[in-house]
Amino acid sequence: MAKIRILLADDHTLFRQGIRTLIAAEADMEVIGEAANGADSVDRANELKPEVVLMDIGMPGLSSFEATRQIKKNRPETKILFLTMYDDEDYLVEGMEVGAAGYVLKDSPAQQLIAAVRDVMQGGSYLSPRMLSQLVDDFRSRIKSANRLPRFATLTTREREVLKMLAEGQSVKEIACDLNLSVKTVEAHKFNLMRKLDIHNKAQLVQYAIQKKIIKIPNLA
Predict the structure, then answer these.
(1) If both were cysteines, with which of 22, 57, 78, 199 could 84 make a disulfide (CB 3.0 to 4.6 Å apart)?
(2) What's the CA gap between 178 and 167, in Å, rounded?
(3) 4-140 maps to CATH 3.40.50.2300
(4) Per-domain residue ranges of the chain
């Protein structure tokens, strides 16, 4: 039976030795080489032509993400599994963007790593259960946020009025005069509406007002 050819890329010698011992116990896998940094992993992958690379994140020198990008460019058929201590969604996303097939946390049970290697060899992808759980929780949170009232709906009638007048180019003093309000009151309305809409400057405010058809696009003809 042909064995899955694996390259280990990690800057910790003891960790590589532990993974090598783990894989040696599997009848369908073998470690064909090791690398201690990103650049070395690219060179070793070109030389040894592994089917799977177990790639640490955070090695010295060339980043693991750039190393992965280069390996995938040279050998698209090679599967990259990130093996890392970082349960970070940003790292996960970047890893997927450069072509990794999986993301395994270093504190995972040994059999999860073995399962991950077999899954990616069969054309699948693999995420450690904890990372998958984080993604599900994040997805649920976004759904809840989407079900909330639109930001514009949270504005009071007066705040909408002030929004329109600001977008039309009136100053706070002019608005205060037109609405028979104090300047401080108009400033308070302006602060509240910009906070609710997550707007931070006049240009964003005008753009928002145009998008929502609160004001018309200026005629530049």
Answers:
(1) 57
(2) 15
(3) yes
(4) 4-140, 151-211
What's the confidence (pLDDT) of residue 220?
Answer: 45
Taking the complete model, does pTM exceed 0.90, yes or no? no
| Maximum CA extent, the chain | 87
Number of alpha carbons in the 13 Å side-chain half-sphere of residue 136? 7
List the end-to-end C-alpha distance of the chain, in Å, as a whole number: 75
**In contact, 215 and 164? CB cutoff 8 Å:** yes
Q: Which residue has the tokens 């609710």?
A: 196
- Write out the DSSP string of 49-69: --SEEEE-SS-SSS-HHHHHH
Q: How far apart are CA 45 and CA 9, in angstroms?
A: 10
Residues 93-118 pLDDT 10s: 888 889 999 999 999 999 999 999 99
| Domain covering 151-211 assigned CATH 1.10.10.10 in the classification | yes
> What gap in Å lies between CA 190 and CA 184, rounded to an integer?
10
Q: What is the pLDDT of residues 139-190, one digit of tens each?
A: 677 666 555 556 777 788 888 889 889 988 899 999 999 889 899 999 998 9
C-beta separation of 193 from 155 below 8 A: yes
